[in-house]
Amino acid sequence: MKPFVNYEHPGVDAENRELSKILFREIDKLPENQRIAFVLNKVEQLSYAEISEVLGTTVSAVESLISRAKVNLKKRLEKYYRS
User: Fold this and answer.
1) CATH number for the segment(s) 14-80
2) What pTM value is reported for the model?
3) For residue range 31-82, what is the model confidence (pLDDT) as tens digits?
4) Which of 50, 57, 64, 77 allows an S-S link to 46, with CB 3.0 to 4.6 Å?
């Protein structure tokens, strides 16, 4: 699967470009099933039901995948967002 990298996204201003690069790089490092579920939900705006159809799994499994993706990203990005 092609890495999810789009540093030039129109929603990313110059000040946040470096943090966006870090975020996208960390998204790419997620386990594949977590990455797919997370991107489909947060970027493609698919519902959990739609993602469950795409992945051929249950809605509760999708909820778990996205929850674990968030936990993993929070741990990996913590040092960049400390006050």
Assistant:
1) 1.10.10.10
2) 0.78
3) 999 999 999 999 999 999 999 999 999 999 999 999 999 999 999 999 877 7
4) 50
Note the Cα 59 to chain centre separation in Å: 17
Q: Taking each helix axis from N to C terminus, what angle separates 59-77 and 17-29, rounded to the nearest 10 degrees?
A: 130
The DSSP-derived string for 6-66 is -TT-TT--GGGHHHHHHHHHHHHHS-HHHHHHHHHHHTS---HHHHHHHHTS-HHHHHHHH
Residues 6 or more apart in contact with residue 50 via CB below 8 angstroms: 40
Residue 33 has a CB neighbour count (10 Å cut-off) of: 16
